[in-house]
Every structure is written in C-alpha cells, then in structure tokens.
C-alpha cells in the first residue's frame, strides 16, 4: 500500500512540475491527482502556453515578448483592449 502511495505521489509531483513549466498548473494538478502516471504523460504531451516560436529563427521565446532575444526580429504587436 505504501509503495502505491509513493508511486502516485511521485507522478503527481512530476505532473505538477510539468504543468507549471508549461503554464498550465491547474491541469497538471488535476491530471496528476486523478490519473497519476497517465496524467504526467498527458501533461508532457500537452501544448506549452508560456512560449511561442520566433517566425524568423524558430527560437522558443516568452509569449509576451516584443522582440526575439536571438535575432531581434519583431515578433508581434500587442493590441490595446
């Protein structure tokens, strides 16, 4: 019983960490809690919400960036809302 508790706890922590890195913490917590190792795998395969790809050099940059730090290409304009 203790082994299975530790097994699911490890995969819960992995799922939460991956969810935090990808900008989807709530999904990481829920999938890790409900599905354990399958939830960690689903979070690993999910889309990254914090980063986008530069259209010029294909570097991964933060989604709120105006310029790419590698090639200084203007990534996008922020619209006023």
TrEMBL record:
Identification of the protein by name: Zinc ribbon domain-containing protein
Native species: Photobacterium sanctipauli
Transmembrane segments: 27-45
Record carries keyword Transmembrane helix: yes
Keyword terms of this UniProt record: Membrane, Transmembrane, Transmembrane helix
């Amino acid at each position: 019983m203790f082994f299975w508790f530790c097994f699911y706890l490890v995969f819960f922590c992995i799922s939460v960490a991956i969810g935090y890195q990808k900008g989807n913490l709530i999904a990481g917590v829920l999938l890790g809690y409900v599905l354990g190792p399958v939830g960690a795998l689903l979070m690993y395969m999910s889309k990254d919400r914090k980063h986008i790809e530069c259209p010029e050099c294909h570097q991964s940059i933060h989604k709120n960036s105006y310029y790419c730090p590698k090639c200084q290409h203007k990534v996008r304009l922020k619209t006023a809302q």
